[in-house]
Design goal:
This protein is of the alpha/beta class and about 290 residues long. It has a single domain (about 1-160, about 185-215, about 255-270), classed as NAD(P)-binding Rossmann-like Domain (Rossmann fold, 3-Layer(aba) Sandwich), CATH 3.40.50. It contains ten helices and twelve strands. The chain has helices at about 10-20, 40-50, 65-70, 70-90, 125-140, 165-175, 190-200, 220-230, 260-265, 270-280; strands at about 1-5, 25-30, 55, 95-100, 145-150, 150, 175-180, 185, 190, 205-210, 215-220, 235-240. It has a six-stranded parallel sheet, sandwiched between helices. Strands 6-9 form a two-stranded parallel sheet. It has a two-stranded parallel ribbon with strand order 7-12. α5 (about 125-140) links the parallel β4 and β5 (about 145-150). The model has no long low-confidence stretch (mean pLDDT about 95).
């Protein structure tokens, strides 16, 4: 396959490039300097030159609180960007893969969400990503939306850290931490996610797929496991999210259930604890038993 990966220098993009190349695909990595998703002409010029069969769009404005402050930018990148990339894909006869989020759900259901359930976002980030999904799926029935959450990978984010590395650093610096215990997530390693996306693309999967680690935990439970595995000493305290007020409302329980992966024979990702341990080993941490 000829595959263009937009956002190739991000956490997920880096692993997508690596995995697709390892699988023998012809990969065209595209960074922000090479394609501007909010500009249709830029998308058309960049992609028309490459003529890929598949375009994976990982570009996103995903700083949730910043999206509340700058909604125009959120919709420009997450919605208009999705439309632009999807539109050019239609012109080229290419399949478009759009990476989305658990934040398209409110978290008020009281349980996990399957692909069949209606989205009901509670913040600008979630609304803008949902609108992007609608565009991508409306442009072609062959397009694919992958919803995921809690990403951590070997390439740190543009913020300069991922959650795992941030916790280890803060624990070492401060010796005490307060972490919310009433918001739940399925921490997902980008290398496992990238492998599953390759499998989905190769299988010509279409529509919406939920792809996260199996199981779930609160951010406090995730932090506790990180510190247990690395042996970093820290006085850790669970707190309510109300103790950390923020501009954006966040869902308390937006855990995604990978119903289609299982039903359609693609198989599930490993448990989040296994994914975390594998990540730490890859980062040369000596795990504590």
């Amino acid at each position: 396959m000829k595959v263009a990966i937009i956002g190739s220098d991000g956490q997920l993009g880096t692993d997508l490039v690596k995995i697709f190349q390892q699988k023998g695909e012809e990969v065209f990595p595209l960074t922000h300097a090479e394609i501007e998703v909010v500009d249709y002409d830029s998308c058309q010029k960049s992609l028309d030159l490459l003529k890929p069969e598949v375009v994976i769009n990982t570009a996103a404005f995903h700083q949730v609180d910043e999206c509340e402050k700058y909604p125009e930018k959120a919709f420009a990148v997450n919605t208009q960007g999705a439309f632009n990339v999807g539109g050019v894909c239609r012109e080229l006869g290419a399949r478009c893969v759009f990476i989305s989020t658990d934040y398209v759900f409110s978290g008020l259901k009281g349980g996990s969400y399957t692909e069949r359930q209606a989205a009901d976002p509670v913040n600008i980030y979630g609304v803008s990503k949902l609108a992007g999904e609608i565009w991508v799926l409306g442009i072609s029935e062959h397009n694919l939306v992958v919803r995921t959450c809690g990403l951590f990978g070997e390439k740190v984010s543009k913020k300069g850290w991922n959650f795992v590395e941030k916790i280890i650093r803060l624990a070492k610096e401060k010796g005490t931490l307060k972490v919310v215990d009433d918001q739940f997530v399925s921490p997902t390693a980008t290398f496992y996610l990238a492998e599953k996306i390759h499998q989905l693309v190769g299988g010509k999967a279409a529509g919406i797929f939920h792809v996260t680690s199996e199981g779930h935990c609160s951010w406090y439970q995730f932090t506790k496991k990180i510190l247990e595995l690395t042996g970093v000493p820290c006085d850790l305290h669970p707190v309510a999210s109300a103790e950390f007020p923020s501009p954006a409302k966040r869902p308390d329980f937006s855990v995604l259930e990978s119903e289609r992966l299982q039903k359609e024979g693609y198989g599930l990702l490993p448990d989040w604890q296994e994914a975390l341990a594998e990540y730490l080993i890859r980062q040369d941490y000596q795990l504590k038993k």
